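Per-record layout

source: Hymenobacter jejuensis
name: Histone deacetylase
length: 301
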Amino acid sequence: MLSIAWAPLYAHPLPAGHRFPMLKYELLPEQLLREGVVAESNFFVPSPPPAAEILRTHDAGYFQRLCQGELTRHEERATGFPWSEQLVEREVTILGGTIACAERALRHGVSLNIAGGTHHAFADRGEGFCLLNDQAAAANYLLAHQPSVQKILIVDLDVHQGNGTAAIFRHEPRVFTFSMHGARNYPHRKEQSDLDLPLADGTDDATYLRLLRDTLPRLLDEVQPDFVFYLSGVDVLATDKLGHLALTREGCRQRDRFVLELCHQRALPVVVCMGGGYSERIADIVEAHANTFRAAAEIFS
């Protein structure tokens, strides 16, 4: 059964400059339902996790100041969001959704969060529209609560390096971080993942897919993970305003299908989070994200 985390507050309203990217959180589930890719029964509304689960990953002082609206102006600017109680509730719920997806993936093979992939959040600070690191928190949750999960692979294919995730797990051998991203894109100061594959501006479908196909099967053989987190950002598209790569929607679709088929073939439970997408046309963003769900529905049916 395909299990998808979604909550109305994923599309939490923000000031005018932020509203457009948020539309996908409303439009994507509507499109999937309209097409019959999923049914209402495939969705679940996540709950905020206990604070203790967030504090496995995040600094207690930072989390307290975040919840109480006590971030400095510099810290708030670094996140890209104006602080509000609703924003914190949204971020905490997204994190809870990824934890819940991890539990469901262990039972069903795959689970997807319509939000998530907040990979720029560090243990002690937020950056780049990311306040709390949902995949890092879910990975730590599994390591703490699931004896069957001893090794985790994070496959981050968003166009931006997962700098926060890399820093959080720098000294954690049970989590292997793999980031394939634009070399000259945000963040300008990169962290060191266990494996980084920086890409030149203008990288096309053929180059991107060849590199991924040469790398990921070998990585699975070497790391031998018990669980995979996949960040499937669609800001790799040529149409993306912030991406600088040159993938088509078809190339992005093949990327997702390749990752999910590998996980299915190797009986590896996988959680998928959506990550970024900033194309001029909202239809390009939603369609590319929808392809991820279509692939998961077909492969794990």
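summary: Residues 85-108 form the longest helix (24 residues). The chain has a mean pLDDT of 95.
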